Amino acid sequence: MMNYNAKLSSFGSYAPKKILTNFDLEKIVDTSDEWIRTRTGMVERHIVGDDEAASDLAYNAAVKAIEASSVRYKHIDMIICATISGDHPFPSTACIVQKKLGMKGFPAFDVSAGCTGFIYCLDIAKQYVENGRAQNVLVLGVDILTRITNWKDRNTCVLFGDAAGAAIVSRAEPSDISRIIDSFTDADGSLGDYLIQQAGGSRMPASHKTVDENLHTVYMEGNRIYKYAIKSMYAACDELLKRNNLSTTDIDWVIPHQANLRIIEGLAEKMRVPLSKVIVNIEKYGNTSSATVPVATDEAIRNKKIRRGDIMLLTSFGAGLTWGAVLARY
Ligand code: UT7
Question: Which atom of ligand 1 is nearest to the CA of 292?
């Protein structure tokens, strides 16, 4: 039941200081700056230091999102964190961030939906705000995939970076122009084996063998995933546009998952949206999994590209396989 409208109050983001360039990767595996640039659009990515974990990055992004809004710390009444590389299997990274922020007395939990995690979390937060059970949900997207990367596998190790993004989903006042208009999420579990961390869970617990065979790292069949990426993000965006009687000309900004520049360009072409309306920052961050969409949105807001009142389509795709989109007037 919908008693209220939800809006995106603010965004924040944080990336660790250390930068790994394509040229640095040339020294680690048999690759080249030219291959990485032309096949993915990536130039450099941020990676964590030994003393940093997911909650540290997420905390910094959360503080920035809170500072960018009129919401006070005491008004946050839920934390939902999208991650597949949290500090620990349990407790949740959302609970650890809650503690770091000095908060308690409300629910905090993680959501596992691969690179689509942030979109899933926005969809959940929207419903909590609309039904009145929460007023200001802190939504986090954080991943440190470089901790679960096989640095001997050139197919995957050049792709990932570390970062966190945050957004506050708040109850909209009747006078607000900002509103989350609609959201859509979907999954096809039959395709799960294409993108998987095989060991470390109850199916294949950690053992000397799993460590020796690098089974705790990201396994991805990039080629197979590629064809679903454009198709599924397009389907999610198309569903939201149709459902709301909008066309792509009504959209000011598309903010897609940053996994590959060719995927982003393919999506823009299929949607018939000019690239000037698509937010791209993959060259600086690589694929930061659930952080790509909030980091790109936050940067575009801070650079004054995205302004209050603009219509945005956020969309992502990832492990599960999962996909989804959020349509919002900022
Ligand atoms: O965020 C979650 C969702 N993930 C995605 O959406 C990822 C989707 N997939 C992709 O972005 C692309 O498939 C990749 C970037 C992962 C790979 O690009 P591709 O154009 O599909 O390359 P490929 O896998 O077909 O490999 C082409 C060639 C192969 O060599 P041969 O067999 O043709 O001789 C690979 O061995 O490129 C080779 N290759 C590399 N060469 C240099 C693969 N990785 C590298 C590398 N450096 N890092």
Answer: 1
Q: Provide long-range contacts, Cβ within 8 A and 24+ apart, for 246-251.
A: 246/311, 246/327, 248/272, 248/273, 250/311, 251/277, 251/311, 251/312, 251/313
Mean pLDDT by 10 residues, the chain (330 residues): 92 98 97 98 97 98 96 96 97 98 98 98 98 98 97 96 98 95 98 96 96 95 94 98 97 98 98 97 98 98 97 98 98
C-beta of 155 in contact with ligand 1 (< 6 A):
yes
Those residues with Cβ within 8 angstroms of residue 84's Cβ, 6 or more apart along the chain or in another chain:
112, 114, 117, 143, 145, 197, 289, 290, 319
The pTM for the full model equals 0.97
38: its two tokens: 């032309």
Question: Which of 165, 142, 170 lies closest to 77, judged by CA?
Answer: 170
* Centre of ligand 1 from the C-alpha of residue 223, in Å: 7
- Structural domains in the chain, CATH included, are 6-171 (3.40.47.10), 179-329 (3.40.47.10)
